[in-house]
Design goal:
alpha/beta, L-arginine/glycine Amidinotransferase, Chain A, 11 helices, globular
């Protein structure tokens, strides 16, 4: 997780992230509130015996979205890390020396796979925002968008020996910018906004794949998705106990029956992330670059 120093609304990402909202609030107060939310989130995870590595962001270069590291890097077994091509020029600056140094301290023999140069071709694949991994079944789910290039998806899947599952997903008629705002894959279940998938063929393909992999399907509505109910993530404690992380806002949007189903698989952790969600257009899952 990257602790923010200059968090705020990013106009470069707002062009295709409909979840961001620009407000009149002073930037200094937005940063102060975001920092408090970040620290509270980290404290909650650690309270549940979940290991967290925190890297402090730096003022230069200016990176208002550094709090969402999962988009530019993903980690894989045997100390492999992939670097991804980012849509917004100021998000490319998040690949900072300080972050790489912190990674090397924990994984000195890490092997880098760098596809970020594809930015020069205006082709993008924004990590585990663009792709939702089912690591157990070696699948990568991705909805097409300006930030998710299907050919790059297939290249990454070839590298990881994963099967790509590509589909279209829309919100108010526009492509959803990141798959992880409409879908969460856990060990024994999947949370998905099937309402956002317009093609019957795509819906059937998804449901057949979930059935094959014995995943319980928990559907959310488009309205719940817009409250960040799709942007949740299953994490594990040092004792391998599963937890589902979602924001307080997302939790409030879910029904009692939905929460009961999710709670039957794992305990639920609900940090308050209102400022980060409003100005950044991302939530609990986006803030985690999971280490496996």
């Amino acid at each position: 997780m990257v602790r923010p120093c200059c968090f705020g609304f990013n106009p470069q990402t707002a062009v295709n992230n409909a979840f961001q909202v620009s407000t009149e609030e002073e930037p200094v107060f937005v940063q102060k509130k975001a920092l408090a939310e970040f620290d509270g989130y980290v404290a909650l995870l650690r309270k549940h015996n979940i290991e967290v590595i925190v890297v402090q962001d730096t003022p230069e270069p200016h990176t208002p979205d550094s709090i969402f590291p999962n988009n530019w890097i993903s980690f894989h077994p045997e100390q492999v890390a992939i670097l991804y091509p980012m849509f917004a020029p100021n998000r490319r600056l998040e690949r900072k020396k300080t972050v790489f140094q912190a990674i090397q301290e924990h994984a000195p023999r890490i092997r880098w796979i760098d596809i970020s140069p594809r930015e020069r071709e205006n082709r993008f694949l924004e990590g585990t925002g663009s792709m939702v991994f089912d690591r157990g079944n070696k699948r990568a789910y991705a909805c097409r968008s300006p930030r998710t290039d299907e050919e790059l998806l297939r290249q990454v899947c070839d590298t990881l020996n994963y099967d790509p599952v590509c589909f279209d997903a829309l919100d108010k008629g526009a492509p959803i910018y990141h798959t992880n705002v409409m879908m969460c894959m856990a060990q024994h279940y999947v949370v998905i906004c099937m309402e956002s998938v317009p093609s019957a063929t795509d819906r059937q393909k998804l449901l057949k794949t979930f059935e094959k992999d014995k995943k319980k399907v928990v559907e959310i509505t488009a309205a719940q998705m817009n409250e960040f109910a799709g942007n949740m993530f299953q994490v594990f404690s040092r004792d391998n106990e599963p937890f589902l992380v979602m924001s307080h806002r997302a939790c409030k949007a879910l029904s009692k029956s939905q929460l009961k189903v999710l709670g039957s698989f794992n305990k639920i952790i609900t940090p308050v992330l209102d400022t980060i969600e409003t100005h950044g257009g991302g939530s609990a899952r986006c803030m985690l670059a999971e280490v496996v």
